[in-house]
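Quick one: structure for this chain?
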Amino acid sequence: MFFGIALISTLMAVITNTFYRKRIQKAENEKNEQDIKYLRSLLIEKLSEIEKKQVECMETVNRIQASVEKADMHDSSL
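Got it. Here's what it folds into:
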């Protein structure tokens, strides 16, 4: 009788542990997916900001180059 009770208890523990593990794993997967979505949107936002700053820098460089060329042309004409 003791062996039967121990066997049933062991089987119930294994089954319960399996279901519990699947439930925990599903919750972790959902959390990981949410984290990935958040990080992806954050990354896209930061890349957009970097692209805007890059455009601004290129415009500044172009203006400086134009000013230098204009100054060189002015000095050459004198």
